[in-house]
Amino acid sequence: MSSEWPLKELEFIANEVTVGYVGSMASEYVEDGVPFLRSLNIEPFRVNANEIKYVTPEFHKQIKKSALRPGDVAIVRTGKPGTCAVIPDWLPDANCSDLVIVRCGEQIRPRFLCYWVNSVAAHHISSHIVGAVQQHFNVGAAKKMKVAVPDISTQDAVVEVLGSIDDRITLLRETNATLEAIAQALFKSWFVDFDPVRAKAEGSQPEGAIQGCMSAAEGRMPKAAMDATTAALFPDSFEESELGLVPKGWRIGTVDDLCAQITNGGTPSRSRKDFWEGGSTPWFKTGEFCDGFLLEPSERITDEGVVGSSVKLLPENAILMAIYAAPTVGRLGILTEPSAFNQACTGMVAKGSVGPWFLYLTLYFGRDWFNSRANGAAQQNISKAIVAGYSVVIPDDNVLKSFNENAELLFAKIRAGTVQAQTLTQLRDTLLPRLMSGQLRLPEAESLMEKAL
Predict the structure, then answer these.
(1) What residues make up the domain containing 409?
(2) Three-state DSSP class for 36?
(3) Could you tell me which of 130, 107, 136 has the C-alpha nearest to residue 10?
(4) How far is the C-alpha of 338 from the C-alpha of 294, rounded, in Å?
(5) What is the bridge-based pairing of β-strands 345-350 and 319-322?
(6) pLDDT band for position 221 (50/70/90)?
(7) What one-character DSSP code corresponds to residue 68?
(8) Which of 122, 317, 391, 441 is most buried (CB neighbours < 10 A)?
(9) What pTM was estimated for this model as a whole?
(10) Structural domain tally of the chain?
(11) Which superkingdom (predicted)?
């Protein structure tokens, strides 16, 4: 660590160090209300809005000690102790459990503290984790954590360098979220709500325009009528089916009918070093699924591991779905290269006429159904057979072709944004410890950042 930066214990540079709510929460959650963060919502440098819970304003007031506000620094106590993020402006009022809450004083910037905790403070945190069954990081240990405290101008300069990278990563993620929402909206309109068919049945011109969706992908969201060629692909009436009214001429099938291959994964023997050491084949676990493209696995296996075990190798754009441990059940991943995966997932390769994006979004919109079928005493799971047997409405090939041509443009942009975000994340994670330890000076870091951005 740089000798130029003095060390001070956190309790002496923070206005307050406290802890999130400790107690049972199962009966307190409601559909809408005050956001309630748990440890799974805190990732390094960011708050993940997925699976945020909510509590009533009344309960929020009862536990005001654990209230959060923008600028607070949240540190995970259990799960992944020490993971740290700054509460953003889009959470003006929130509450939490399983978190250490730090309100910074005049000597320390919240984002600088966040960078410190996520990098240099790892040793202090790991050496102060307690608990035999569930390990956690105590608020008392957090107060004693030593933090480098350079002058505010230096902190601001460090935050500017690293923050520029984080801001770019955030922008890429937000753009991807917009593109994903467009793809989901188009799928829902065509294949869940059957909007084009309903419009034609009423004698109206279908909207939802592919052109409108694609313009939205460029940053605009205009209303536009569907072009005549696309509109002509849809029927103008419905017929009865086992799933209710469906567009005339479309058929009822299953996920199995959409797939050229559907299989569960496996895990090579951990006792066989030749299955793991020096491996080059990606091997994914369900904890890495984030409803998007899978880029870099936490583990890889060797060719011997592929041949000598029950793993299956699936190609680029195959879809993986978690089938163990509700509510993880239904979480999805898209392969970006030939890869293997563990037995907690079902892997699917779409038929050429169906395409990966129709399959992916079919599974995405079926998530509630899959979770409703999860069963088991200790762990709520589903099976490959349940996945394969999920009933779906299958449009004719021309409608599928039109959808996939446009979905491909959206998902190509999403993939490119995901790759860029990962590249920038790797740059930040490379610069961070070197910058904080004094191995890298600010001018050098700024030069590296400018080249990357």
Answers:
(1) 154-229+398-453
(2) strand
(3) 107
(4) 11
(5) antiparallel
(6) very low
(7) B
(8) 317
(9) 0.84
(10) 3
(11) Bacteria
- Residue pair 243/228 in contact (Cβ under 8 Å)? The answer is no
One domain for residues 445 and 387:
no
Overall average pLDDT of the 388-400 stretch: 96
CA distance 47 to 83: 11
What does the block give as tokens for 139? 């608020």
Give 72's DSSP letter.
-
**218 & 266 share domain:** no
Separation between Cα atoms, residue 345 and residue 320, nearest integer Å: 6
Helices 152-191 and 110-118, axial angle in degrees (round to 10): 80
CA–CA dist 105, 308 (Å, integer):
58
pLDDT digits 0-9 by tens, 205-216: 887 655 445 444
User: Tokens 């070093």 appear where?
Assistant: 273
Shared domain for 357 and 258, answered yes or no, is yes
Give the chain's mean pLDDT: 90
382 contacts 245 by C-beta, under 8 angstroms: no
Name the amino acid, one letter, at 174.
E
Is residue 274 domain-shared with residue 293, that is, in the same domain?
Answer: yes
Mean pLDDT calculated for residue range 52-67: 95
Mean pLDDT of 245-272: 97
User: Among positive and negative, which fits the CA dihedral 425, 430, 433, 437?
Assistant: negative
Separation in Å, CA 344 to CA 152, 297, 387: 48, 15, 13
